[in-house]
Amino acid sequence: MDFSTTLSTAPVSDERLAEILANPGFGTHFTDHMVTIEWTPSEGWHAARVTPYGPLTLDPATAVLHYAQETFEGMKAYRHDDGSIHTFRPEENAARMVRSSHRLALPVLEVDDFVAAVDRLVEVDQRWVPDNSVGGGEKSLYLRPFMFASEAFLGVRPAQHVTFMVIASPAGAYFKGGVKPVTLWLSTDYTRAGRGGMGAAKTGGNYASSLVAQQEATAQGCDQVVFLDAQEGQYVEELGGMNLYFVHDDGHIVTPETGTILEGITRASIIELAGKLGHPVEERRFSIDEWRDGVTSGRITEIFACGTAAVVTPVGSLKSDAGDVPAPASTDLTMQVRQALVDVQLGRSEDTFGWMHRVV
Ligand SMILES: *Cc1c(COP(=O)(O)O)cnc(C)c1O
């Protein structure tokens, strides 16, 4: 795929960029450029381009605004201490967007084209990838590829005009002032995914449906919400943006099986990494009773959650209408897994899995 490039005539100044990168926060500052590729049934993917970052003009009848036919991805580019820039397993994000798009009846963007699009943006906006060489931080450039129904048509059918874009936003360390356990609220009124539904797809609708449950969690004084399976209301699924792990006193780890959860790339990577550290990971159904009993008896020693944004975070106490479950005793393995993964991503340890993809 050939990309045309129109560079911004008004890029952010070096002084302003230094200010932004000193304290990037999350998702508030955007780089100077964006990537766009369009699709129609007759032309396929075409008009691939890098242009200055800016607002879209959409017809009010644009299908995504009405029927939410949309998929997205979340990934990061990391600057290593030698100045080189790398993304983490980008083919996995590309493959997941293919699966998500299949579920949302959107066209397939080939893995190579997805990776090329992300690489192009990172290359053009490389000065936006934060430097961690002084002070050993964990800053990165968050990348957001997304695809949406851009046809102006109110009929209910898959759109005949689709747009794929990539935007980027510098991200600070997820935890300011050190990693601390997240507290959770158990949602029993809301579920995020049913059998045959779209829980395994990365699509905006899953997030829209989680917001009211998250609001409830916040009102209960908790950081995040835990969802149970929709059928029996017994089995732990995920946090709606992070996958869960339960560490047992004999060293093995249990993580909820796939189907209605979103299969995180961090999740898959931790299954490999923990196995290598001598902690086999079992993928199976895991009930809320097993959580409660396991922590109470001491058989569960640690719980953690993972996703691209936070990498790995310890899970603290769980609050629910049926009573609270205290935080597990330890966070040692959690922090060990976190460090091992962050070190590979930031180029501070050898990439024995071949996970990093060099862009610059
Ligand atoms: C993106 C996402 C995750 C985490 O996936 P990663 O690839 O590890 O970032 C977990 N749950 C949901 C619902 C998600 O959308």
TrEMBL record:
SUPFAM superfamilies to which the protein is assigned, alphabetical: D-aminoacid aminotransferase-like PLP-dependent enzymes (SSF56752)
Protein name in UniProt: Branched-chain-amino-acid aminotransferase
Keywords: Amino-acid biosynthesis, Aminotransferase, Branched-chain amino acid biosynthesis, Pyridoxal phosphate, Transferase
NCBIfam families: ilvE_II, PRK13357.1
Family listed: Belongs to the class-IV pyridoxal-phosphate-dependent aminotransferase family.
Cofactors demanded by this protein: pyridoxal 5'-phosphate
Organism: Nocardioides plantarum
A GO term for molecular function: branched-chain-amino-acid transaminase activity
